[in-house]
Amino acid sequence: MSFASVHWPILNMGKQPAIFRGNREHYRADTCRPVEVAAKAGLIRMSAVAHGTYPGLKLADKLMPELRSAGSWDVPCNQTWGLDWHRNEGVEFVFIESGRLGFAVDDQSYPLRPGHLTVTRPWQRHRLGLPHVEACRMIWLILDVGMRRPHQSWRWPRWLILTTSERERLTTLLRHNEQPVWKADATIASCFAKIARLTARESQPFDRTRMALAINELLLAICEMLDRRGIPLDDSLTTTRRSVELFLSELPRRVEEPWTVDTMAQQCGLKRSRFTSYCRQLTNMSPTQYLAHCRVDTSARLLREQPNLSIIDIALACGFSTSQYFATTFRQLKGQTPRQWRNAVHPATG
Predict the structure, then answer these.
(1) What is the side-by-side order of every strand in the sheet holding 67-75?
(2) Cα separation of 181 and 103, whole Å?
(3) Topology adopted by domain 19-235
(4) Can you give the pLDDT at residue 150?
(5) Cβ contacts of residue 291 below 8 Å, gap of 6+?
(6) Is-contact 311 350, C-beta < 8 A?
(7) Cβ-based neighbour number of residue 155 at 10 Å
(8) What is the pTM of this model?
(9) Of 318, 242, 228, which is closest to residue 278 (Cα–Cα)?
(10) Sign of dihedral through CA atoms 9, 12, 15, 16?
(11) Which CATH architecture has domain 239-349?
């Protein structure tokens, strides 16, 4: 079964998406390219409004710029595509109205069912479809509130009419929330339904007023729900140290990049000296020492698991500029040369 049309025209990609580097890949702000392809092929029905590289009706640059993407998709049958690991330019809220969908965030998988709400922040990598999307109706909202790391300040849009105390409470709850999947209440479900209707008005202009009201109502409802359910407040989750900790936990899967201490610090939004201090606290190593350990550990795994890859290819894949530098660093940390390490596991490949 397929749908013959798509509510909003899916426009060509414009500007390059924001980049989030992580886990051996360069994650860009999600462009939903597989969704766009499926919609054009008539495999799903999608309605959306968007800024930047997200698919959907492109809003004017100055029209609710914080609204990166909002819309719905209706998937009538199981698909052969999914949205691979990615990050977003803001906080993403997803609601499953019907059907089921596999979802994963930070390597933890969740089976989404009707009434489930997901909440992900920009530093959380996640995917939809494990690996493929199932039959479902999904509604989403992505808001850019000006932060990318846990310690950074949140800047809500001017059209958010919540009181100062409500904004502060919402920010606190979302910053501390480590549970990505919730069972939504009826009010939240109703708000998502409004957003879906507002993005599905094919023959009418975008209704900014009603969309702003719907988003305000949704955010207030989410705030009240999280408040009722008692989000544990742990200040350590919103510190600069936490941002460095998250970056360092990703570094073993990012070893191919040409890191310097300065670029690592920039990834955390910190000055070199402060980043170095946190790195020593967390690893008992300098940033360059920790990076060397990550690169050698990754190369050791590849030498063991990929006997058909040459040693120089593995060295380059792990960020070493020369085979000699690779061999020297590897021997210092492992007590053997890369060839000796490989021969111990794969004698015939030495």
Answers:
(1) 57-58, 45-50, 67-75, 136-143, 91-99, 116-120, 181-183
(2) 9
(3) Jelly Rolls (2.60.120)
(4) 93
(5) 251, 255, 259, 264, 319
(6) no
(7) 12
(8) 0.79
(9) 242
(10) positive
(11) Orthogonal Bundle (1.10)
Tokens 């550990």 found at: 297
pLDDT of residue 201: 72
Q: For residues 28 and 18, what is the distance between their CA atoms, to the nearest angstrom?
A: 5
The helix (run of H) or strand (run of E) holding residue 242 is helix 240-250
CA gap 296, 341 in Å, rounded: 11
Domain boundaries, the chain: 19-235, 239-349
What pLDDT, on a 0 to 100 scale, did the predictor assign at position 345? 77
Contacts of residue 333, Cβ cutoff 8 Å, sequence gap at least 6: 292, 293, 296
The closest of 218, 212, 198 to 8, measured between CA atoms, is 198
**pLDDT attached to residue 31:** 55
Low-confidence ranges of the chain (pLDDT < 70): 1-31, 202-203, 348-350
What number of other Cβ atoms are within 10 A of residue 56's Cβ? 25
CA distances from 54 to 58, 204, 287, 323 (A): 9, 21, 35, 41
Q: Are 63 and 208 in contact (CB under 8 A)?
A: yes
Please enumerate in sequence order all residues whose Cβ is within 8 A of that of 179, keeping only pairs 6 or more positions apart, or say none: 119, 231
Tokens matching residue 232: 């544990």
